[in-house]
Amino acid sequence: MPEELKPGSLHRDLTANIVAAYVRRNQVGSDELATLISTVHAALSGLGKAAAEAEVGRTPAVPIISTARDAPSSDDVDLGGFPQRP
Fold first, then answer.
1. 23, 36, 60, 71 - which has most CB atoms within 10 Å?
2. Domain total in the chain
3. By CB neighbour count within 10 A (0-12 exposed, 13-18 middle, 19+ buried), where does 49 fall?
């Protein structure tokens, strides 16, 4: 590959090759083609860049208090034949 290619030109050529290969082997409607091209181009353009970290507050599926309260005690756990600690 010539080194004088600009990144935009390289991404455009790679996008065309990837989309052409995909369309050759998969049935793609004409209404889906533009989305496929832009998705592949965006993916190639994002290569080598740090992914943006999403600041999402997590909420536990079950409240922590009820989880700890309802947890089995060591007397309730089957150790599969192993002796329990005193």
1. 36
2. 1
3. exposed
